[in-house]
Structure formats: C-alpha cells, structure tokens
Amino acid sequence: MQEMTKVALDAMGGDNAPVEIVKGAVNAVNARNDIKVFLVGQETLVQAELAKYSYNAEQIEVVHAPEVIEMAEPPVIAIRRKKQSSMVVAMNMVKQGEADAFISAGSSGAILVGGQLIVGRIKGIRRPPLAPLIPTETGVSLLIDCGANVDAKSDHLVQFAQMGSIYMENVLGIKNPRVAIVNIGAEEEKGNALVKETIPKLHACEGINFTGCIEAREIPKGGADVIVCEAFVGNVILKLYEGLSSTLIHVIKGGLMSTLVSKIGAALALPALKKTLKSFDGTQYGGAPLLGLNGLVVKTHGNSKCTEITNAIFQCITFKEQDINGKIKEHIIVENADSEEE
Amino acid sequence: MQEMTKVALDAMGGDNAPVEIVKGAVNAVNARNDIKVFLVGQETLVQAELAKYSYNAEQIEVVHAPEVIEMAEPPVIAIRRKKQSSMVVAMNMVKQGEADAFISAGSSGAILVGGQLIVGRIKGIRRPPLAPLIPTETGVSLLIDCGANVDAKSDHLVQFAQMGSIYMENVLGIKNPRVAIVNIGAEEEKGNALVKETIPKLHACEGINFTGCIEAREIPKGGADVIVCEAFVGNVILKLYEGLSSTLIHVIKGGLMSTLVSKIGAALALPALKKTLKSFDGTQYGGAPLLGLNGLVVKTHGNSKCTEITNAIFQCITFKEQDINGKIKEHIIVENADSEEE
Questions:
Q1: Contact by Cβ (8 Å): B143, A240
Q2: Closest C-alpha to B181, from B205, A231, B241, A130
Q3: Which residue in B268, B274, B280 has the most chain A C-beta atoms within 10 A of its own C-beta, making it the best mutation to test that interface?
Q4: In contact, A180 and A165? CB cutoff 8 Å
Q5: CB contact under 8 A, A184 and B244
Q6: Are A269 and B266 an interchain contact pair (Cβ–Cβ within 8 Å)?
Q7: Distance (Å, rounded) from C-alpha B203 to C-alpha B211?
Q8: What string of DSSP letters covers A111-139?
Q9: Which of A14, A21, B126, B271 has the maximal Cβ count within 10 Å?
C-alpha cells in the first residue's frame, strides 16, 4: 500500500470557511488517493457541508473542535486559551505525529504563534520564516521571510536562504536556485547594517547559489528564485505586490471602459487579458509554508477558495515525499544551536 | 519687478544630458518669465544645444563646469574631489545664495552627499529625507524617506512626518494632509522596534494629521498623503512600484497580442489604455525634493526627459513662493538640536 500524506485542515479558518475549505478537501481526495484529510472544526457544520459531496469516506475524517480563533484575537492569548479551537486541535495532531501537515486560511498571527508553540521548531532553527511564492514575469519566486519575525539577525537570514533554497529545489523543482538578498542597490557596499552584515555570511554559506543583492524593481522580473529579506521588508513587498496589482488592474479596466470604441476593444481583448492576469494571480500557487518546524504548517490567503485549499494539500504531498524537513535538518547551519531563542 | 526663482540646473546629469536637460530649461523659461535657469556644465556642449532654440536670453545663463560626476562613482569621493563638476559648482551656487534651487538627474548618491556636505542642513534637521511623489488611484502621495539615511531613528521619522506634511500642504495644496507610518499591520501594537517607538511620538506631534499605520497594500489606493518610513523600506516601495508597474504593463500588452481577436481589441482600446497608464507614470510629477537643506535640492529620474525637467523647475517656484524652508524652520521639533549628526 502506498504511503498516505495526512493533512490536518482547519475547517473554520478564513473568510470562506467552512464551505470552500470542505470543497477544497473533497476535490483533493477525489483527485488523488494518496492523501487523507482531517477536517478539524465544528462537527455539525462540517458534516453538513460534506453531505453535499460524494468522495471516498476513508480519505476524509471529521475531527470535532468546538472553538474558533477569530481574526482579530491577540494570537498568543488565543493559542494559549482556546485549547479546543480548530487551530490548536489540528496543530496538536501534527505535534503528535497523527498528521504530517497543518493548513489554515485563518489568522496569520495565530498560525505563526501556534506553529512555534505547539508544533515547535526543528532543533537548531532559530526563527521559522513564512515563505510565500510570488508571481513574476518568468514564473514564481519564494519571498522569505514574510512572517512575524521582526528585527531579525543576520544568522536568521542565512538560515532563511538555506531553507528557501531547499524548498525551491525540491518542491518547485528549480535546480540550483538563485538566492539574492533584498537591498537598496545592486552594489554590496550599500544597505543597512543588517544587510551589510548578512552579505559576507551568505557568500560564505556552502550549498546555496548566492547571486548577491537584488533591488526591489528586479523582483517582478524574476531576478532571483529565493528572495531573502527580514519580515518587515518581506511583508511590505508582499502587500505592495497585492495592492499595486489590484489597483493597476482596476485602473486599466476603468480606462478601457472610458469610451465606446475602447469598450468594444475591451470586450474583444478581455479573454486574453484575463488569461494573462491569471498568471499574476496568487491563488494558483497554494499556500505559504512556515518553514523549519517539526511538521509542515501552511498558511493560505484569508480569502482562499477551494482551488487554493486543494493546491495547498497537494503541496503537502510534495513536501513530505521530498523529505524537506530531513534535508533541512541535514543541511542547515546549527553552529549556534545553543543560542536558540524562545 | 516680480521676484525671480533662480535654479541651478545640472546640464550634465542623467541618461539624456545635455539634450533633454537644455530643452527642459528652454521650455520652462518660454512658459514663465519669473524663472532664471543657470545651465551648469561643459560650456561648448551646452551652448551648442542652446543654439537650437529661441528664448529670452536674460532667463538662461550658462555656467562652465568642466568635470562630470559619473553614475558609478563613489559619491563621497566624487563630491570631495571633483570640485569643478557640474554638481559641485551648481550646489555651491545654492550655498552662496546665487541660486534658490539645484536640480539634477545625475547620481542619487552624489546628490544626497552633496546636499548634506555642500548645501548643508537647516539647523535642527537631523537627516534630510528624499521624498518622491508616487502615483495612486486617487492622486499622488509623498513617500518619505527614499534616500540614503539607513538605520534611521524614531526622531528622524517624526521630522520626516513634519516636513512631508508642510510640503504636501503648501506645494501640492492638500489641506491637512493625512500622515501615516508604514507598518506590517493596521494595528499599532504590530511592527518592528523602530515603528513601535515612532508611533507614540507621531501621536504626540502637534501640527500634523497623524492617522496611524498604513499597510503597503493600501498605498496604491491612496490611503495616506504622507507615507512615512525609513529609507530602506521607502526604497523598496519606490522600486517595487516602478518594477511591478512596468512588468504588469508588459505582461498585459503581451496578453493582448496573443490572439488575432484580442489584437483587434487592443488596437481599439489602446488610446484609452495609454491615457490611463499615463496617470501611473512618474514622469509627470517632476522630481523628488531632498528636504531640510539650506536651499532646495531636487533629484529627478536618471532617464528624465525635458517634461520632467520643466516640471521640476516649476516645482522650485512653488517651493520658494510658499517659503517651505521658512515653514520648516518655524515648525520642526528641534529639541534635540544639540545632538545633530554629521
């Protein structure tokens, strides 16, 4: 019998829970028989959704969790107090080895906190980075870190570069991925104190293909496969990507509707235009892994639809098959393991 | 007789010097008679360009400067050694009061260094920020700081907020401009150490309309008039804006050309589309002022054409008429004037 990838899925997380989450799980198990999904959440609600579909009953199991962590709750308090929430119950399943991975479209803060407090870090990993894939002109790049690790240190960034490199090579299949650090110029003498301290460490780091600095303007062009930065900068890049894409598309649509002739033109051009914009649509890339934990934790967009959930589940299979955590344990610099932080 | 605004223009700076720079100066003086432009650069070259146009000879004067600071030169060394460069000669004219303002499309680094070393800071201003206007869905916002002030402190950011506010109110005519600080969440308890330290100081700062934190995704929507951040983050925002806009436009054009039907549609829609994209085109907003100096220093894009130069010259008139530096001197917190930095 083939090995199953077991995914604990937060049925209550995100704007479209439980409807789209349940649908995403059903679509995943109907497409592949090497997955088992635990739908963790309020049993009555989840079962009512499940009743709409036909699927192999052995591949989906509902795990009851009466509480829900809301988006606005302070993460640390929510994770500590709501022991019966879908998030805490599901992450405990990963901790106990009952599931290989946890996926949630819920509160980012709670996922980041729960990942560290419940699932726990791999020994030697100092900070687990959140690493979404962002679309570029030539494909996708991994932006690492976009999480909650504010005021990171250079040693953290070196670990991000290593983990990101392993992920892109083994999950995305990009051989010898180009690793670059975000800087305010292409020249290595530029930058803030953190970047200047990190650059020589990245040059000295074996097993990664460090190509130097990348300016933000080169990111959308696909200038590197692994884009290393501390979380504040990563967050700004990720959110500006989102905001600017939607604003430009909005502005362009408005422009196309401004005259009768351009309206006709727009009608003719729209199918091709939509197909193109689809390539810049984050939803098709599944979720963002929180790397360096004892198990996989994946954060998907708060507004995830079923397709994003299904893709995130498939991503977990590759992550397990490629033994990403085994490779992280083998390759990451853990010289400073004794200086681990809480 | 009306008062003239005197502008020292670097005729040798940027990709299109001296052709577009000279043309920009001629267009400016032909449009308004309250400007005098000093074209600073290699006299023979500049005169040869000028000979192509007709204009009021009293409004343009060529000032010979045999040396040129190249884009790749280390800024501090270039400014210190090339005393006869167009940049150093022109900035000295501002220092001596022979010109009100200096404009250059040349090396940003050299402009920033020269601004501080030659023109000099207003007493009490700790770091002069570079503050470009960026396009938004509803107009423009001032992004402050995008300069070379790495590892800024909270007191610097408060001064940026004040100077940016004065600029937007008096040069752009936006009453009571909304000031926001870039953060990784809308909530004030989020952020890195610098942002957390700055927020209460901005709340306490009189004379500005501080509206709280802004996430990067709200910037293109026009979520604030003055966007405060330290220079590394500002640089990332500015360059990602540039890169993502050009990539998306490129990708969209490619998509429109993909089928015959969409090609016809594109041909019909193109005039409206171009007009729309023009509203997201940085060139129409003139240059970025380097605020807080004893005189105005304006940096325009390296690839500036004549229109951008002309607009930058007009911007200097408003800056002088509105006595921006007088207002900065009057309003800026200078409590820590004794702790000024070099």
A1: no
A2: B205
A3: B268
A4: no
A5: no
A6: yes
A7: 9
A8: HHHHIIIII-BPTT--SPPB--EEE-SSS
A9: A21
How many Å is the maximal CA-CA distance in chain A?
A: 68
Phi first, then psi: what are they for A115, rounded to 5°? -55, -45
Q: Read out DSSP for A11-69? A: TT-STTTTHHHHHHHHHHHHH-SSEEEEEEE-HHHHHHHHTTS---GGGEEEEE--B--
CB proximity list for A60: less than 8 A, separation 6 or greater: A25, A26, A29, A36, A37, A39, A50
Tokens 């900065």 found at:
B328
Nearest CA distance, B242 vs chain A (angstrom) = 6
Each residue's pLDDT tens digit in chain A (342 positions)?
568 999 999 999 999 999 999 999 999 999 999 999 999 999 999 999 999 999 999 999 999 999 999 988 999 999 999 999 999 999 999 999 999 999 999 998 999 999 999 999 999 999 999 999 999 988 899 999 998 788 899 999 999 999 999 999 998 899 999 999 999 987 887 889 999 999 999 999 999 999 999 999 999 999 999 999 999 999 999 999 888 888 877 777 777 777 777 778 777 777 777 777 666 665 556 789 999 999 999 999 888 999 999 999 999 999 999 999 999 998 875 554 444 444
DSSP per position, A67-117: B---TTS-HHHHHHH-TTBHHHHHHHHHHTTS-SEEEE-S-HHHHHHHIII
Structure tokens at B115: 């601004």
Q: Is the complex ipTM more than 0.95? A: no
Task: Give the pTM.
Answer: 0.90
A169 Cβ contact list (under 8 Å, min separation 6): A175, A176, A177
Quickly state the pLDDT bin for B307 (edges 50, 70, 90): very high
Closest CA–CA distance from residue B54 to any residue of chain A (Å)? 38
Residues in chain B: 342
Cα–Cα distances in Å, from A246 out to A139, A269, B63, B218? 19, 19, 48, 11
Nearest to A273 among B216, B218, B256 (CB): B256
Contacts with A191 from chain B: Cβ below 8 Å: 150, 232
pLDDT at B187: 80
Phi and psi angles of residue A132, each rounded to the nearest 5 degrees, phi first: -75, 155
Alpha carbons within 13 angstroms on the beta-carbon side of residue A26 total 17
- Contact indicator for B285, B310 with CB cutoff of 8 Å: no
| Enclosing H/E stretch for B113 | helix B108-114
Instruction: Tell me if B267 and A265 make a contact (CB, 8 A cut-off).
Output: yes
Q: A233 and B237 in contact by Cβ < 8 A?
A: no
